[in-house]
Amino acid sequence: RAAHLATLASLADRSDAAARATDILRCYSERYLQYPNRDNVLGPSHLFFSTYLESIWLTNFLAAATLLREQGELDQELAEAIGTVADEAANLIGEFDEGLSNRQTWHNAALAAVAVWFEDEELATRAVESSTGIIAHLLRGFGEDGMWFEGENYHLFALRGELLAMGWARQAGVDLLADPQLAERLMAALRAPALTALPDHTFPARKDSRFGVSLAQPMYLELWEVGLGRLSGEPPELAAWLKELYAAPAPAAERFDSYLHEAGEEPPARPRSRADLSWWALLDMAPALPQDLPAWSPGSILLESQGLPILRSERRYASLECGEYGGGHGHPDRLHLTLHAGGRHWLADPGTGSYVSRDLLWYRSTLAHNAPRLDGVSQPVGDATCDAFDTQGEWAWAQGSFGQLSRTLVAGPHYLLDLVDSSAPEEHLLELPWHLDGRVEILTPGSWVSGLLEDQFVSAGERFVPAVEGEVVLEVLGESGAPGLSIRFLFQGELLRAEAPGRPGSSERATFYLARARGRNLRLIAVLEPSGAPVARALRLAGEVIEVDGPDGAERHFPTADGWDVTLPAATVRLRGRRHATAPVRPLIDLNRPIPVEGLALHAAEPPSLDGSLDGFDAGQPLQLDHEDQYRRSEEPYPGPEEFSAVVAVNWDVDALYLGIDVVKQDVISRGDDAPDLELDNEPDDIHADGVQIYLRLTPEGPVYGFLVALAAESGAIRVHPTAETRAASEMIQGAWQRSDAGYRLTLAVVLPDWQPRSGDTIDFDILVNRAEPDRLRRAGQLVWSGGGGWVYLRGDRQDPARLGLLELG
Predict the structure, then answer these.
(1) 204 CB-near residues (< 8 Å, 6+ apart)
(2) Residue 356's CB: how many other CB atoms inside 10 A?
(3) How many alpha carbons fall within 13 Å on the CB side of residue 713?
(4) I need a labelling partner for 163 at 20 to 30 A (CA). Which of 173, 201, 233, 755 fits?
(5) Distance of alpha carbon 167 from alpha carbon 543, whole angstroms
(6) What distance in Å separates the CA atoms of residue 295 and residue 244, rounded to the nearest whole number?
(7) Contact criterion met (CB below 8 Å) for 264 and 255
(8) What angle do CA 398, 400, 403 make, to 5 degrees?
(9) CA quadruple 149, 154, 158, 160: dihedral positive or negative?
(10) How far apart are CA 636 and CA 199, in angstroms?
C-alpha cells in the first residue's frame, strides 16, 4: 500500500497520498527491529515467518521510499531510519542464500533494491553477477525452453521476482536486456506458461502447484504486460496471448502472498482489463497493446528442458509428464497423463493441497496421479525422459520412459491411444490409476465385488468381474449427464475402483479407477475418446499391432524402429521424432561432489538391551556428531559440543542393525501421544521433538529406508514414522529411551525385510539428531553424521540419498 500510495503521489501530485505513504514507512522503521528473528519457517526474518516474505516486503518498502525520496517527500531523519531497516534486512537476506530457488529470485530483488537505496556498487554486483544472482537464475533456473524447473506455479512466482530484480538492476545502471542472450531467455520465460496453459486458461497443477488457478488473475496478467513493456513488444505472439486472457471471463479472485493489490477482493463482473493491474505494472507496461492480433494458437509442442510433450487438437489437450523430478517441489508422478477436452478437465494433475493438511501426503503420492507405479508403492525419486515426439497433420505422438516403465500417446483426429509398458524381465505388479472427473458408467456387462487396494487414504475398494472376455468400456458423463468421455481398456489383469480425497479444494471424496496386472513385460492399453458420439467401436491386440475399429474400418497402430505408424483405410501416417538421449557432461574433477563419510558397525555376539541404557553395546568404533560442519542451523549457529552433540554405537547381527545413541543436551523435549497437532507447513510434528532420523540403503541400486524416531513420553516410549519417499515401515524399528545426566540415551533395533548381512559388506547409512528447545515451536537445528552444515529450514524428514555415508559391517 505504501508503494501504491507513493506511485499515486508521484504521478498525480497527491500530497495526501505522499503523507500516508510516509506514515507507513515511519511506523515500520520505528518497529522493525523490535520484532524477534526467531522460530521461523524458512530462513531468518523479523516481520514474517520466512526470508522470502521479508524480501517481498522489502522490495515494496524500498520502492515506496525511493519514489518518495525522488519527490523530496522524505526528511533526513526518516531516510536514515529507512536505511537502518534496509541494512538489517539485507544482512538477514544476504546470509540466507537459497541457491537456484524460486525464493532466491526475490532475495536478489531485495538485495538489488538495497543496493539502489545505498548506491552500493559492490552489493549490486553480487545481486546481479554472483553464482546465485539475477543472471544465473535467468540462464539456469529457467531452462532453454523458458520453463522454471519446479513447474508452472513456481515459474510464475520466480518470474515475478526475476522481473522485479531486473528492474532494480536497471535502476542501478545494469540493463540486462541489452544482452541478446538474456533478452531471448526472458522471452522464453514469458512464453513458456502460455504454451503449457490448459484450454480453460488455468495452468496445469504440475508438481507442488495450486490446483485450478487461472492465468487471467491480475498478478499473472501483469507479468506479460511488464515483460512486453521491457522487451518493446517482443515476441508479438505474447500480445495475442494477453488479448485472449483479457477476453476470458474474470476468474474468482485469489489471494497470493506475493501480490496484495487486490487482497482477495471480488472480481468485477466484466473481463479483466489493464485498469485492474497494480502500481508496478502501471510504471513498467507499454502505453498500449498492439491491435489486429491473430488468435493465440500454440499447437502441439515439446518443452525440451521440461521433457513435457503436449498434444493439441481443436478441442483436446493431452500431456505426458516426463523430464526432471523438480527438486523439493517434485512429485512421484513421472509419465502422468493430463487430458482436457470439450471444456472439461477429465484427467487432472492434482498438484498440492494445503501444506498443513494431512492429505498433503496423498497429493504427493503416485496413486493420486494418472501415473503408473510398480509393486504397490509410489515411484522412487528420479527423472523421466521424453523419447519421441512428432506431429503429422491431424496426428501426433509422444513417448516417455521412467526406469522399467514407458508410456506412449498417439493422438488422432478422434481419439487418443494410450499404452503403458513394463519391460522388467522379472515379475512385477503394475498399476495405473485413472482419476476421472464425472460419473462413470461401465458399459461392459459384469459385476463389482470386494477388492483390496491398500493405502491409508483409500477406502471402499471393489474389483470388476466382466461377464465377457476382451475390452472393458467405460463412459464418463458430463455435467448435463450426457456422455462426455469414452474409454476402452484392453489388458490382462483386473479393473478396480475405490474412494480417495478429491481434487484440492473439494471436501468430498471421489471415486477413482485403477488398472492392475501382474507378470513380466506387461502392457496396459486404453483408447480415450472425448466425444458425445464415440467413433471408436472396438479395440484389439494382434501381436505388436493394435487395431481400433473406426467408422471407415480398422486403424492399425504399430511401433517401428524409428517411430510409430498408423495404417488407415485410405492412407498411412508415419510418425517419427525418436530422440536419442545424451549422457550429461561431467567435469573431470567435481569440486561440489560430496565425499561420503565412513564408519564401522561392530558385530554383536548377543543382541544388546534396547531399554535406553546402552547395556550390551560395543562402542569401540563410535560415530561422532560434534562438529560445526555437521550442524544444520535455524537462526542461531551451532552452540558447541558441550551444549549439543551425540555419540552413536552401531552393532549388527543376522537379525538387525542396532543403534546406541548417547545425546548431550540440557533440556530434553518429548511429545506425548496425545499432544495437539502443530499443523506446521510441510513437516511432520515429530521432527520438532528431540529424536533422530535414520536412513539406510543396503545396495546402491536398492530402495532407501528412512525413519523418524521421536521421544514419545517420559516413560521412555518411542514413536516411529516412515519418512517421505522411502520404503520404510514403522514396525521395522523397536527400542526405548531414557534420560542421562548429560541428556538422553536412545537404543534401537532396525530390522529390514531384505537384511542378509555378511562381514565386510558396506551399506549406505546416515543418522540425524534433531534439537528441540523449550521456548521454540520448531526445532532449532540438527546434527548430521554425513555432514553438510547449512540450514535446517523446510527440510522436513527428507535427506538426499546422494549424501548418505558408508557403513562397513565389521
Answers:
(1) 152, 196, 197, 198, 319, 338, 348, 349
(2) 13
(3) 6
(4) 201
(5) 60
(6) 8
(7) yes
(8) 170
(9) positive
(10) 48
> Distance of CA 297 to CAs 192, 205, 247, 251, 294, Å?
14, 21, 15, 21, 9
- Grid cell digits, residue 442: 461401465
- Dist. CA 133–CA 625, nearest whole Å: 33
Q: What is residue 390's predicted lDDT score, i.e. its pLDDT?
A: 98
The C-alpha cell at 301 is: 509442442
- Class of residue 696 by CB neighbours under 10 A (exposed 0-12, middle 13-18, buried 19+): buried
List Cα–Cα distances, 209 to 205, 386, 444, 463, 796, in angstroms.
5, 22, 37, 32, 19
Residues of the chain with pLDDT under 70: 264, 532, 581-594, 682
- Cell numbers representing residue 348 in the block: 487432472
Contacts of 804 (CB under 8 A, 6+ apart): 596, 695, 697, 704, 764, 765, 766, 786
On the 0-12 / 13-18 / 19+ scale of CB atoms within 10 A, 402 is buried
The enclosing H or E element of 158 equals helix 152-171
C-alpha cell at 184: 531471448
Cβ atoms of 635 and 95 within 8 Å: the answer is: no
Q: Nearest Cα to 718, choosing from 683, 754, 693, 751?
A: 693
Measured CA to CA, the distance from residue 614 to residue 675 in angstroms comes to 28
384 DSSP 8-state letter: B
pTM: 0.93
Q: Within 10 A of 579 (CB to CB), how many other CB atoms are there?
A: 15
Tell me the one-letter amino acid at 777.
L
Phi, psi of 611 (to 5 degrees): -110, 10
Instruction: State how far the Cα of 551 lies from the Cα of 466, in Å rounded to an integer.
Output: 26
pLDDT at 587: 52
